[in-house]
Amino acid sequence: MIPVTPPTDNLYKFMAIAGLLVAGFSLYFPITERRQYRDQVLALEIELAAQTAETQRINEALSRRDSLRPLTRQEEERFGRFDSLRAQRNATMPLRQEALARYRTDIGLFGVLLVLGTASGLGCAAAGFTLWYNRVQRHLDRALAADKGSAA
């Protein structure tokens, strides 16, 4: 009966190459995604700043309303639109702030993914290359040297 031996030579090489691929992917993916998330964070921060400034402007206009003479119908409609706009801004602002906080958390997680993925990929590649060399290639080199020595 012939004993079954696993294809260790190919297994170690696969392990080494897969480790390099994981390390490469772990470098590429988090960096590109992090860049996109930073762009989204910047856009949200600009939007929130504009929304805050507009809300302050509306609040100032509404505070002046109380000090004015009796309002005309057009002025009352305009201030009514300001009230509804302020309510809309106040309702959406917490959602945007929550989204901003989530984006910032995800940016931090991409950093962790970059470090852990790269480290594990390089570790896997180093283990694969080391195992391949120590358990396979070194013995093949000795056999080749012995063949050369006996042929000479």
Describe it for me?
With 152 residues, this protein is mainly alpha-helical. The chain is 91% helix and 0% strand. The chain is built from two helices and no strands. Helix 1 runs antiparallel to helix 2 (73-151). The longest helix is centred in the C-terminal third of the chain and has 79 residues, at 73-151. It is rod-shaped and about 115 Å long. The mean pLDDT is 84.
Ordered list of secondary-structure elements with their pairings:
Elements: H1 8-67, H2 73-151
Helix pairs in contact: 1-2
In short:
By secondary structure, this protein is mainly α.
- Measured between the Cα atoms of the first and last residue, the distance is 37 Å
Radius of gyration: 33 Å
Low-confidence stretches: none
Structural class: mainly alpha
Give the total of beta strands. Answer: 0
Question: Helical proportion?
Answer: over 70%
% residues in beta strands: under 5%
What letter string, H or E per element, gives the SSE order? HH
Biggest sheet descriptor: none
Outline type:
rod-shaped
Average predicted confidence as pLDDT: 84
What tags apply to this protein structure?
152 residues, mainly alpha, 2 helices, rod-shaped
